[in-house]
Amino acid sequence: MPGFNKVVKTYDEACAGLEDNMTCMFGGFGLCGIPEGLIAKVNELGVKGLTCISNNAGVDGFGLGKLLDKRQIKTMISSYVGENALFEELLLSGELEVKLTPQGTLAEKIRAGGAGIPAFYTPTGYMTVVAEGKHVSQYHGKNYILEESLTADFSFIKAWKADKHGNLIYRKTAMNFNPMMATAGKITVVEVEEIVEVGELDPNFIHTPGIYVDRVIQGKFEKRIERKMISK
């Protein structure tokens, strides 16, 4: 079934259609499980005004830090940004809009977006700055705030293995935000360590079905360690 083949050979093909002012999701947690080559291509393309949804913004000069270097990100929706000095500088200068979101809420906003759920109630953040401007309702004597779900024009994610139909397997903690983001993009692009023939992946261990995936590309990964801790 050649029509189901999701594999592309170049990063230009993988990122075709990406334009200024789009909303993009980027998988990863710290530097673990980030689509390194796809981020580098977005950086090379020079698209501007992006709204980026990611757990964090990488580090200076690597991961999404590359996009900050070129001032390609207009708005960052994330839950942790403490490893990037430039991020702090751009935030304080007003060059970058930041929407900090509790980590579990961020994950659920993405999952809900992928499931077609427009919004949900959560107690997380009630009576904090997180709740400012949001609707509050009470259920069984407890207050909840209404959080809107998130979707994106592009989801750029990383997986361990894919078959040519786009079925995906992630490896250990590199899974992180990738599976939910795969469901929430209008176009989902996956960078993988290995591409195999259809039928080689055990169906019992597929994490993301190929129905959610539009393009798959074979990548090469530096897998940089964010913070090395060694004994003396």
Structural account:
The chain has about 230 residues and is α/β, with parallel strands linked by helices. The chain has a single domain (about 1-120, about 150-220), classed as Glutaconate Coenzyme A-transferase. It has 6 helices and 11 strands. The protein has helices at about 10-15, 35-45, 65-70, 85-95, 105-115, 180-185, and strands at about 25, 50-55, 75-80, 95-100, 120, 135-140, 140-150, 150-165, 170, 185-195, 215-220. Strands 1, 2, 3, 4, 8, 9, 10 and 11 form an 8-stranded mixed β-sheet that branches. A 3-stranded antiparallel β-sheet has the order 5-7-6. Strand 6 (about 135-140) and strand 7 (about 140-150) form a beta hairpin. The longest helix is centred in the middle third of the chain and has 13 residues, at about 105-115. The mean pLDDT is about 95.
Features:
232 residues; alpha/beta; Glutaconate Coenzyme A-transferase; 8-stranded mixed beta sheet; 3-stranded antiparallel beta sheet; 6 helices; 11 strands; 27% strand
What would a concise description of this structure say?
By secondary structure, the chain is of the alpha/beta class. 21% of the residues lie in helices and 27% in strands.
Mind describing the biggest β-sheet?
8 strands, mixed
User: Which CATH architecture is right?
Assistant: 3-Layer(aba) Sandwich
Helix share, percent: 10-25%
E-strand count: 11
Number of helices: 6
CATH topology (fold) name: Glutaconate Coenzyme A-transferase
Number of domains: 1
Secondary structure category:
alpha/beta
Low-confidence stretches: none
- The SSE string, one letter per element, is HEHEHEHEHEEEEEHEE
* Oligomeric state of shown chains: single chain
Alpha-carbon distance between the two ends: 56 Å
What's the pLDDT, averaged over the residues?
Answer: 95
**CATH C-level class:** Alpha Beta
| Broad shape | globular
**What is the beta-strand fraction?**
25-35%
Radius of gyration: 18 Å
> In the CATH hierarchy, what is the superfamily?
Glutaconate Coenzyme A-transferase
